[in-house]
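Request: When convenient, would you put together a sequence paired with its structure tokens?
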Amino acid sequence: MREITKEKLDKYFDVTGRAIKKVKLVNDLELDSTETKKFAEDFLDMAFRYYRDAQHFASKGDVVNAFACLNYAHGWLDAGARLGLFDVGRDNKLFTVD
């Protein structure tokens, strides 16, 4: 499939939305420094911003940019999970933590 259909966009909004809700910053005691905590907060902030951008673009009918923003949002979440910044409950369906 070479199109970004409404169904495909809705699926990615669902998946990324569920991932955002699941992410928790790793317990402060587990983070090895204040700087690491700032990285974790920054990664999560970027994911939220891209998700909101996706909502904005979708509301304007710009599905290409909405889809791109969703993928960036999920990429920030995945990167944070892989780096151990986020507790995702070892969820390998929503995150690439294996």
